[in-house]
Write a structure and sequence with these properties.
Layout lengths: L9 H17 L6 H25 L8 H15 L4 H27 L5 H19 L9 H8 L1 E2 L2 E2 H18 L2 H11 L1 H6 L4 H27 L10 H11 L12 H19 L4 H34 L1
Antiparallel strand pairs: 1-2
Length: 319
């Protein structure tokens, strides 16, 4: 993959470095092993959700049900996971299957129902949230201690959460996106008509993208369960819009066809630690949401302008 494709991620990388530098100035302990593990765990769930969102955005759609699938996965894992290793493996597989099935429903409705993605996923958001409430009407549940420590612990300065993120991004998602399916996903997002004329099965490609997105959202839910060690049917609410923000700030185009995983992952960590930085800066909790929203607006404006400029420059070079 050409390094030119990673230029759209540069703004997110610079933004995260600046934010971490200011946070370190306010709280030097964040670069201790404990602080670094805390930061890594704080951003991993959103990074996984952003990867789920990115896969759908590359096709030209948007998945408003990402947060609901995270909640559904969280409630399944926290409710049914027992103490034995066999139970843990079984429930993990069940959760991943549930997330993939949720993505499959989204994809079928979008591809063969010919309904706009934003409408489909808005409807399924309520459906999956309802299933989560049926499974876990009240917050609670539990997971084995070794499950939580395996995903959220650390070995010195190496948090296990980053290993989990790298495994998902490099060993699962990247091979798919570099395969014929990945090429088809980019092609469908860039020009659906042209992709069809090139022999690409557009409906099948759309369904596959949504299934991958559901699977990755389930991964986010499983990690969140390890982080919280409990289940809550509303815990994933914020991940829908934050995942969209991470994708845009990370350099992807909402119209589809453009974007790489690095940018949304970095942007997810940026968004995840904003509240902590505002708290360290002494901003009152009453105003933190206001400042957080204002910061996101500014960075998204710069990110969108940067991405559009890069896209126009690429179009000029091609012509």
């Amino acid at each position: 993959m050409s390094l030119r494709r990673y230029r759209s991620s540069l703004l997110a990388v610079v933004g995260l470095i600046v934010l971490l530098g200011y946070y370190w100035y306010q709280q030097p302990l964040i670069l201790s092993p404990f602080g670094f593990r805390l930061l890594a765990n704080q951003g991993t769930t959103l990074a996984l959700a952003a990867l789920a969102q990115l896969t759908v955005v590359l096709t030209g759609g948007v998945d408003l049900s990402v947060g609901a699938i995270v909640s559904l996965s969280n409630t399944i894992a926290a409710t049914y996971m027992g103490d034995s290793p066999a139970s843990v493996v079984g429930v993990v597989l069940l959760t991943l299957a549930a997330g993939s099935a949720a993505g499959l429903v989204n994809g079928l409705l979008v591809a063969y129902g010919r309904i706009q993605p934003i409408i489909v996923t808005l409807a399924t958001l309520y459906i999956y949230s309802g299933f989560a409430l049926l499974i876990r009407p009240q917050p609670g549940g539990s997971v084995p201690g070794y499950y939580a420590s395996t995903l959220t612990g650390a070995w010195g300065y190496l948090p296990y959460s980053l290993i989990v993120l790298l495994v998902v991004a490099l060993c699962l998602r990247m091979p798919i996106m570099r395969s014929r399916l990945g090429t088809a996903i980019y092609a469908v997002g860039d020009n659906p008509g042209g992709a069809h004329m090139s022999g690409i099965n557009v409906p099948r490609t759309l369904v596959s993208a949504y299934v991958i997105g559901g699977f990755l959202a389930a991964c986010a839910g499983l990690f969140l369960t390890a982080q919280t060690t409990s289940g809550d049917a509303t815990v994933g609410t914020s991940y829908t819009l934050n995942s969209v923000a991470a994708v845009v700030f990370g350099g992807a185009i909402l119209g589809g066809g453009r974007g790489v995983a690095l940018g949304p992952i970095v942007a997810a960590f940026f968004i995840s630690i904003i509240v902590s930085v505002l708290f360290a800066a002494g901003v009152s909790s009453f105003y933190q949401s206001v400042f957080q929203g204002a910061i996101l607006i500014v960075v998204l404006m710069f990110g969108n302008a940067w991405t559009l400029r890069a896209r126009n420059r690429l179009a000029v070079l091609r012509s």
